[in-house]
Amino acid sequence: MTGFVISEDFLQSENAARRTALDEDYAALSRALARRGIDSEALTRKVMAFGVAIPTWGVGTGGTRFARFPGPGEPRHLFDKLEDCATIHRLSRATPTLSPHFPWDTTSDYAALREVATGYGLAFDAVNSNTFQDLPNQTHSYKFGSLSHVDRAVRAQAIAHNVDCITVGQKLGSKALTVWIGDGSNFAGQSNLTLAFDRYLEAMAEIYAVLPADWRVFLEHKLYEPAFYSTVISDWGSSLAAAQELGPKAQCLVDLGHHAPNVNIEQIVARLIRFGKLGGFHFNDSKYGDDDLDAGSVEPFRLFLVFNELIDAELRGAKGFAPAYMLDQSHNVTDPIESLLQSAIELQRAYAQALIVDRVGLAAAQAANDALGAHLELKRAFTTDVSPILAMARLRAGGAIAPIETYRASDYRKHKTSERPPVAGTSAGIV
Q1: Residue pLDDT, tens place only, 257-293
Q2: Gap between the Cα atoms of 156 and 148, Å rounded
Q3: Phi and psi at residue 311, to the nearest 5°
Q4: Per the UniProt record, which residue ranges are transmembrane (predicted)?
Q5: 385 lies in a domain?
Q6: Rounded Cα–Cα distance for residues 315 and 319 (Å)
Q7: Residues 313-369: pLDDT tens digits?
């Protein structure tokens, strides 16, 4: 980092102040888990191995359809974003990879970018393409669509951008491309619903054809927005059909906010696993729609139920099961670093809770049609406070026992505010 960093001495001092209490809490939880036949040490090692990618845009202040209120000390460019991502991983030890977005993260030297990231102990996850907004000097507009546009020239431009993203991803060491399009219509009759999907498939086939042999492409669906009458890839069924038609390297990406209200997302996850098409997740939370709230902040039980399906698939050795995990949030009223720290912790929490489900007891209750008994097996795991396991995992991995408290005590944001004077047109955050 070029400026202020949270020193190792400061981190150790913060941990030392909390170590005695953690040891006591960890020992107590270990005894309680042992009575249930659960090895706390094995669980801690599992948590230490769990990681989720940070989206580079997530460390900036987000926005709404009406306004964006820039935060103090937010990143001015990609290398500032790397500093913040490195700080999140240093404290949480749960975010070892970055997911960049192009053209927001375009730079002149990708070898240097990768070298800087490696120096921070970070690697690159899936690269994300952007054909849902127009850029300065862009030849063709995406106002009426991109990969499904009626004009072949517009589709060709969108295809070329995705191919460029693959090229950049190879330079960064990525192994996947995430494609989300805002294509759709706002009025009945505006678009031929069948032909729009056909055009999308034809365009995606061209992108699929240039994927490296060891790459995957994640197809991301979204119910609505910016199109409000119809969306070309609106649900998991459309995404699954497209992935099946494209081929084995095409899989479906599940964003927790991209569904109709009250949809059973964990069942969607189970279905995609069944067909070998679960590519990964964009984790966030929602109350009304695609709110992009902090993971686990509204419906932590749903997050746990998703991980319950993931652990079930892992234990069964489900075919093609290798999901990629990424946070995808818009931080409008919080410090983005704090929100990402907390979200990473909540994902680890749901993961650990899913790991301690009594699978034998659950299967027995299901086989006996014991509805409440099966439900209580899940609730017993969900209501177990695994915080000491998470904190011990962070400590052993070199992180902070209390990441947010340590971050606040360090005055990191204050230091970055003085180091990063505001600039117009920052690419930080989602507008």
Answers
A1: 999 999 999 999 999 999 999 999 999 999 999 999 9
A2: 10
A3: -70, -40
A4: none
A5: no
A6: 11
A7: 999 999 989 999 999 999 999 999 999 999 999 999 999 999 999 999 999 999 999
- Its domain, for residue 242, covers 53-357
The total number of structural domains that make up the chain: 1
Torsion of CA 303, 321, 161, 103, to 10 degrees: 40
Nearest-angstrom CA–CA distance, 243 and 80: 36
Instruction: Give the CATH number for residue 242.
Output: 3.20.20.150
Q: CA angle 71-59-343, nearest 5°?
A: 115
Inside any domain, residue 309: yes
CB 364 within 8 A of CB 391: no
Two tokens, residue 361: 């007891």
Q: Say whether pTM exceeds 0.90.
A: yes
Q: Does 117 map to a domain?
A: yes
Q: Using CA atoms, how far apart are residues 348 and 96, in angstroms rounded to an integer?
A: 13
Give the integer Cα–Cα distance in Å for 150 and 13: 61
| 3-class SS letters over 219-254 | EECCCCCCCCCEECCCCHHHHHHHHHHHCCCEEEEE
Asked if residue 13 belongs to a domain, the reply is no
SS3 per residue for the chain:
CCCCCCCHHHHHHHHHHHHHHHHHHHHHHHHHHHCCCCCHHHHHHHHHHCCCEEEHHHHCECCCCCCCCCCCCCCCCHHHHHHHHHHHHHHHCCCCEEECEECCCCCCCHHHHHHHHHHCCCEECCEEECCCCCCCCCCCCCCCCCCCCCCHHHHHHHHHHHHHHHHHHHHHCCCEEEECCCCEECCCCCCCHHHHHHHHHHHHHHHHHCCCCCCEEEEECCCCCCCCCEECCCCHHHHHHHHHHHCCCEEEEEECCCCCCCCCHHHHHHHHHHCCCEEEEEECECCCCCCCECCCCCCHHHHHHHHHHHHHHHHHCCCCCCCEEEECCCECCCCHHHHHHHHHHHHHHHHHHHHCCCHHHHHHHHHCCCHHHHHHHHHHHHCCCCHHHHHHHHHHCCCCCCHHHHHHHHCHHHHHHHHCCCCCCCCCCCC
